[in-house]
Amino acid sequence: xxxxxxxxxxxxxxxxxxxxxxxxxxxxxxxxxxxxxxxVLGTPVRASGILSIExxxxxxxxxxxxxxxxxxxxxxxxxxRTLRIVSxxxxxxxxxRKALNDLCHDEAVSAGATVELGKRLxxxxxxxxxxxxxxxxxxxxxxxVARHFSMGEIKRYAITYKAEFEAAAYDERIVHLFxxxxxxxxxxxxxxxxxxxxLEVGIGIDSRNGNCKAAFERFMRRPEVLGAIKGSKRxxxxxxxxxxxxxxxxxxxxxxxxxxxxxxxxxxxxxxxxIVFGGNAAxxxxxxxxxxLEGRSELIxxxxxxxxxxxxxxxIHSAINRAYSSMSNTQLGLAISASHAFGIDAFLGRYGDxxxxxxxxxxxxxxMRISV
Length: 372
Ligand SMILES: Cc1cc2nc3c(=O)[nH]c(=O)nc-3n(C[C@H](O)[C@H](O)[C@H](O)COP(=O)(O)OP(=O)(O)OC[C@H]3O[C@@H](n4cnc5c(N)ncnc54)[C@H](O)[C@@H]3O)c2cc1C
Prior knowledge:
By secondary structure, this protein is α/β, with parallel strands linked by helices. The protein is about 40% helix and about 25% strand.
């Protein structure tokens, strides 16, 4: 059993959320150590990386070296209908997840954090780290930190399976989303051009709705998917898990423990995307921890600030997820036709915001005032 250096702050988990927290704390002059069970960060690559450009900017990371493609919109398929939402300007980047993890690591280390790899922490070690200072659990969807400190459950998870293929001729600017509540209730299937050479095909379902790998194999037989991959070779295949709701408690004030990222359930339930919410939560956590170490605030302020900033947007993302998950495939088709008839595709092409639905309303109001 290793002996830990007594640090002001320890972070368990060197994913994007843990590393952003470590960097932000180090920049504020706080001594931080990060521990991760993996020997090589970011591998295996279980998750994709589609991030809105605005969301990426909000993370204050130098992300350009991880960008592999740029997206201008999406085609949404369901019940035999298609809605095409395309913007004139770029809306999202696709990032190489290992490169993203590596750059977050390099930025944390340059800022002064220590990162120790190949270190899976036991319950006893977690207890000792919390005794030595503030402990941040950034250890993913199945968080040992949350379990050890009894921080409550995450009520809903999605399970995913995705694989990469050598890309055939394909429109690189568009991601395709497939809503099919017979095959993928709870989330959706996707085809994403990761780059000009790589296409990703994946599916996510509510964890209570059966076998994701079997659903993936059936998804692979759809004509749209067969047409997209055109017999090209499958390069990889990975299963994973996405928390679809916030954990009951984000802070244990007694033991000075807090959770960020997937460990806290900080994702958008409409898509399962968690890097922007988790990374911004990590920034709030760093501000609050620094302020707590100076005796100016309490750790619980982190939970209060996170909930205040993201409550409404998370609620809207959840409502969207509940709405599309509860429809039959025929209703999905009708909803898509109605969206087109009411011009929602044109509206979203102009005002859409992948992360913060409240910003859509703000931008619309701003535009209306300008045009009055
Ligand atoms: C298929 C799929 C597609 C996705 N697509 C997107 C997308 O397009 N856009 C988006 O924003 N999000 C996406 N997500 C979600 C995104 O991947 C997560 O929200 C994000 O990775 C969470 O980061 P994190 O740092 O909180 O946790 P993680 O990335 O899970 O990192 C946790 C780290 O903790 C370490 N760890 C765990 N337990 C211990 C322990 N006991 N001791 C030491 N180390 C430990 C792990 O090794 C790991 O490195 C997707 C997820 C999946 C599964």
